[in-house]
Amino acid sequence: MNLCRCEKGHFYDKEKYATCPHCSGGSAADNSLTSAFAVDPTSAVTQPNMQNFPPRREGETEKYDDSDSFPVSDRYADEPTEPIYSASHADTPTMTFAQTIPVDEDDDHTVGIYDDFFASPVSPVPEVFGFGQQNLNKVSKVNKVSTPCVGWLIAISGAHIGTDFRLKVGKNFVGRGLQMDVALTEDKSVSRDKHAIVVYEPKAHLYLVQPGESSSLVYKNDEVVLTPVKLEPYDVITVGDVNLLFIPLCGKRFNWGDLFNQMKNK
Asked: How far is CA 134 from CA 3, 120, 125, 130, in A?
């Protein structure tokens, strides 16, 4: 066998063919012919596998890496990555953070002893104290307060002299801060937070004064108060340089409990 290569790179047996059978149209070819190669078969260069790689766009370049066996196109180099939840997934329902956390519907509101009458938008009005029922029904049906007034503290000295402060059911905190029930904001001799506490207990209609949570002292009729002390009408409570005259409202002659019981029985 005398293997020869023609000018076009075809290999053939020169002992069988005088000229290249491939170049002559294949009329003299048989099954024993050697396939043609575009390159030298002894070369170590291998052709990259481009079977599954997308066709390259006009003007694109191919990038090679020493570790790669195929070229990498730069077609997608400048194209941003599409997020999982993008416009194409607009119809996909997503769960928000608020939906994953159970919501406590309790508003954490402590029910007061008179909330049935003062927390509701409409309260019945009985025929008491000589007023006609028809006239009382004309009273505003929207309550302006959350708890009824049970007495007053009236400043008789200091920067607030002549000013009255209403007392509510339960504890009334006395101090200089705006959040206090009795806010003596103009007198710096008074502690800002809870200098004193005045209490109204509605079951026994009992009034008390006791020290607050500050280090300042409280006096009743010029006597220091170290524990809860019962208050009587016209007692004077002293906090800092301020004297507060105590005027009660509730007692045997009038109290909110008796009034509301009359309302319920109507």
From this structure: 130, 21, 10, 12
Encode pLDDT of 125-136 as tens digits: 444 445 455 544
Tokens linked to 263? 């309302």
Task: Say if residue 181's pLDDT is above 90.
Answer: yes
The pTM of this model reads 0.51
Asked if pLDDT for residue 207 goes beyond 80, the answer is: yes
Give the Cα-Cα-Cα angle 193, 199, 201 (nearest 5 degrees).
Answer: 150
> Cα 83 to the chain's mean position, in Å?
26
pLDDT of residue 242 exceeding 70, the answer is yes
User: Do the beta carbons of residue 157 and residue 147 sit within 8 Å?
Assistant: no
